[in-house]
Amino acid sequence: MSDPHRPGSNYHDRRLFHAPSLAEAEKALSAEEIPIGAVVVFEKQIIGRGYNQTEQAARRNGPRRDAGPDGRRQPPG
């Protein structure tokens, strides 16, 4: 059985993206939202990011929004 904590393992790769996801959650918390953040990763690079904006969207126009769709809508770069 391989060590899941060794560099290069899937576990190690996933851990690299926890901090950016938490940073997105901090944005939600600062906006008085439930602190949920997300990053979209492709080939070990962040290609999208987002955070919970449920309350902001409800104040703006009513429909629910969450971090996942925001991350997918963001163009790479």
UniProtKB/TrEMBL annotation:
Q: Entry's SUPFAM superfamilies? A: Cytidine deaminase-like (SSF53927)
Residues annotated as region Disordered?
A: 50-77
Q: Where is the composition biased (Basic and acidic residues)?
A: 63-77
Name assigned to this protein: Deaminase
Lineage in the entry? Bacteria, Pseudomonadati, Bacteroidota, Cytophagia, Cytophagales
